[in-house]
Structure formats: C-alpha cells, structure tokens
Amino acid sequence: MVDGEPRPWLPSPSPAMDEITFKSDTVLSDVHLHTPNQRHLMVRLSGVGQPVFLSQFKLLWNQASQTDSGAEGGNHRAHHAEVTSPARRSCSSEGASLQAGADATSQEGMAAQLDEDGDLDVVRRPRAASPSKPSGPPRDKVHPMILTQEEDDVLGDEARESGPYDVIKIEHTMATPLEDVGKQVWRGALFLADYILSQRDLFQGRTVLELGAGTGLASILAATVAQTVYCTDVGADLLAMCQRNIALNSHLTAAGGGVIKVKELDWLKDDLCTDPEVPFSWSEEDISDLYGHTTILLAAEVFYDDDLTDALFKTLSRLAHRLKNASTAILSVEKRLNFTLRHLEVTCEAYDHFRSCLRRLEGLTGGRLRFAVEPVDASFPQLLVYERIQQLELWKVFVEPVTEPIVSADTAS
C-alpha cells in the first residue's frame, strides 16, 4: 500500500524450491523420439480420438553375427553397423561421397563470394528472374498421411526387402498423458523381447502371463515359442490395440502354434473380472488354465509410479499363491536418471522404489512360498533393432513352495 492505495505491480511471492513450478502431462517414449519420421505412419484414430501410428521393428533372429552381441559397454550401435545390408552400405558410401562433394563446392563458393575487404558478399537473385516453374523436381510437402487399415504394404521398400518374418508391426500412439503410456512402445519391452527370443528353450511350450502388456509386443514374440500367452492390461481401448497388433503379426505366431489371449487384469482388484458383458473378461476355463499351467510371468516398463509398483508386487504375490506350479517372474526396468529440486541432485526414485520392493519380497518369511531374486546378465544377444542402453535391466523372481523339514520320531521326542 502507498498512501492507502494498493500496489498491483508488485510481483507475487516466488514458490519454494521444493514446490512444483511447472507441470507437463505429456510423455513421449524414447523409442518413438529416435524413430525416423517416415516410420510414423498414422493409420487411424483410436476409440478415444487419439491418433494411432504404425511402426515396424526389425527382427535380427536370422543374423549369425548376433551370437556374440552383448551389453558390455552398451555399444550396440557398432553392432548394428555390422549387420547392415551391403546395398545400404553402398548407398551410405555414395551419400557420403556426394555430401563431401557438396561440402567442397560449398567451400569454393564461399571463397568466391568474399569482397576485397574479406566480407561476405551475398548476391541475391531478383525475384522477377525466378522461373515461374522450377526446372527441378518439386519440393516434397509435409502433410499428415492416414492409411486404411486394410492396407497391407504400409511400411515401404525396407519391409518388402526384409520379408514378413523379419519385421514386427506395432500400432501405438505417441506423446500420451501419463495414464496412457501403455499405448507407446518402450525400450524395456524391446529389451524383454530380446531375452525371450534368445532364451527360446525357457519359453518353449509354456503358459505365460504378461502383466501391463501395453501394445503387446513382448506377448507377441513370446507366443512364437510359448503354447499360451495371456496378454493383460486395463482399458478397453488399450486391449483392443493389443488385439489389433496380434492380428497384424499372426504370421509370426502361426508357425509355432502359440495362442495369445487378451484379457483385462487390474492390479488394484483382488479378483479377475468374469462378467461376460465386460470386454476382455475371463471365462472360468481361462482362469482354470491360468492358475493350473502358468509358469512364467512377465512385466516390462511398469515401474514408473510408486503406487503402481506396489500394486504390481502385491499382484505378483497374490498370483504366485494361486498358481499350482512353481513360477518365475521376469521383470524389465529402465533406470531413469532425473534431477529433482527436492534433492538438488540426480536421483532414480522410481527405480530405487522398485529395488526396495524386490528386497521386501525376497525377505518375506513364514509363508508357504519362498521368493528368490537375482539380476539377469545382460550379455544375451540383441535381436531387435533399437537403442539398447546400459540403464536397461532384467530381474528374475523365482517362486517356489517352502518344503517343511521332515521331523523323525526320535527328534520329536
């Protein structure tokens, strides 16, 4: 107040350092961020009006050089260069030569355009002298492209050269709100898929349950060797996307006879939905098969929120107690580094909470099940083309029944 008058020009108090100063509710996966623009083909709108894109991920399972691929040092870009086709290498060399020639020409032109004082003399062509119709090819115009769902060849020449069995096609969205991140493809899912394809004997003929399957990529590749895969998540729109991706890649699973069943499984609910009126609900036959035959559980890139992480581990424990056989859970996580104002340093809070949940699970005693946790050596070969970084980790949780010690009559007395 000045002489009893308000002073609206004074700035408002600044927020404290530990308070949120900005918010962003849009998340974009690094997989889509680094994918070339020509791979992002919009094919339709989802049931909730989100643009749906179709991307291809090249499979390298026929490359003999994959056997010596590992995660030592995380240098997988050099490995990708080894398996690049000769035609592509030729194009790359030619392109490099042309670029070098263009650079040399450009440097000569720069030298010729300096005036006597050494300043750059830019000569502009008069607008009237410009031809109304350029002699060269017209410049490409950038505009959205919507392709029909019935279009078979939407991935260009590379897909035709690779063949249908060397590419997995995935429909997904991009830049979603946090609650819809399952509609994107994440590196952890590709990392888990690498492990599945490199450990085919482990999955051969098994019944597999994936929790938080998202777009269904890992479930689809698991079904190339497993007998039955339950691909589960929540949300009718997301589960419909899974169903669509399964249909797009049916040729990959047909040879092995694997069956994928898309079902709703909510970690925040104790029981499976059996209401036949609800899409993707469970039948009594499916529930009996799930509990009677499942031996492998999968989860990838679902450890980004502490509450959801707690719910997942609670679900794992609940399912393990209902399964009739000993089981193994394989968990894929990316250790994401973030600078926080609260700590004023780089931290991995979501990852740290995930590790604490593993320790608590392993420390459970007094029940009829024993949980053993161990990390997976990341030296298994890379069989999908993506950026495989050192922050990707796999963890195994072994679930076995606790055997009661046999007490003899003499010991008991």
TrEMBL record:
Phylogenetic placement of the source organism: Eukaryota, Metazoa, Chordata, Craniata, Vertebrata
Reaction it catalyzes: L-lysyl-[protein] + 3 S-adenosyl-L-methionine = N(6),N(6),N(6)-trimethyl-L-lysyl-[protein] + 3 S-adenosyl-L-homocysteine + 3 H(+)
Keyword annotations from UniProtKB, A to Z: Methyltransferase, Nucleus, Phosphoprotein, S-adenosyl-L-methionine, Transferase
A GO molecular function held by the record: protein-lysine N-methyltransferase activity
Complex formation: Interacts with members of the heat shock protein 90 and 70 families; these proteins probably are methylation substrates.
Compartment(s): Nucleus
Assigned GO CC terms: nucleolus; nucleoplasm; protein-containing complex
Protein name: Methyltransferase-like protein 22
InterPro entries: Methyltransf_16, METTL22, SAM-dependent_MTases_sf
Function: Protein N-lysine methyltransferase.
GO biological process: methylation
Provenance organism: Monodon monoceros
Transmembrane domains' residue ranges: none
S-adenosyl-L-methionine among keywords: yes
Endoplasmic reticulum among keywords: no
Similarity-based family: Belongs to the methyltransferase superfamily. METTL22 family.
Annotated spans, Disordered: 66-145
